[in-house]
Amino acid sequence: MLDCAIIGGGPAGLTAGLYATRGGLKNVTMFEMGMPGGQITSSSEIENYPGFFEHGKTGMDFMDTWQEQCFHFGLKHEMKKVDRVSKIDNHFIITLESGEEVKAKTAIVCTGSTPRRAGLKGEDELFGRGVSTCATCDGFFYKNKPVAVLGGGDTALEEAHYLSNICSEVNLIHRRDSFRASPSTVERVKKIPNINLITNTVVEEILGDTMGVTGIKLKNIKTDEISELEVPGIFVFVGHNVNNDVLKNEDGSFICEVNEQGQVVVDLNMRTSVDGLFVAGDIRIDAPKQVVSAAGDGAVSALQVISYIQEQV
Questions:
Q1: Which of 3, 37, 52, 152 fits as disulfide partner to 174, beta carbons 3.0 to 4.6 Å?
Q2: Active-site hit among 4, 70, 138, 256
Q3: pLDDT at 49 exceeding the cut of 90
Q4: Catalytic annotation on 137?
Q5: Superfamily per CATH, domain 131-236
């Protein structure tokens, strides 16, 4: 039986593995279908991780050293897909896609969330080269430059507000004439002089070349007028899909408490409503969706796993 099963191999999962094994647990396995690293591996440049400031280093390069460090202390990596995590008596059953079952004393789920794509022409081709879903990660690359933000919810408006402190101009594009965001957020954004609200408008296409995004083609849905906006970057905020399928029972219910968005409810120690089950990273409530935060979650969850196992002896 495993001391701890870690599902997911991003920054949260890797850090959980590092702290668990370095903290004395001998039998810790991380289940991750591909090479570990998570969403950050798709970033073209990393410069906001504390203590790391090397221009030109990609997310893939950044995560390489994490893998080496974690595996050095004994973390095992199984390239197998987990279908479901369940608890029977005082242990967990990790059911793999193949039907194989693995027993574990504890489990840490770090499967994260996935930013939704808007399905725009040019979006996939230019993702990471001017198309982004994280203003905190990539906003600085557009310092004193104009950008576009697509979305009408709280996240879109809050990120537009954040970008307004960095970029020369923020063009907030929304298909309706009113926003889904809270009224206070909308009023705050309206007062910022360098945020342009472009409503009743959709993005028809993201334009670009081999160097990246060069602009976007817009369509006013009331007049059908087509226009182009020259910007080197567009931030897409149309929601996240929480990767919580492994926490569902066969009948579709969840084994632990989640909120309306499907995010797992945890306390400050990353404990869920099920004893011995922890989560870390973007799958939890109120996650900042930053590498440094996910790593912190992973460390906290692993330390709690060690304490939990010690208490069971």
A1: 152
A2: 138
A3: no
A4: yes
A5: FAD/NAD(P)-binding domain (3.50.50.60)
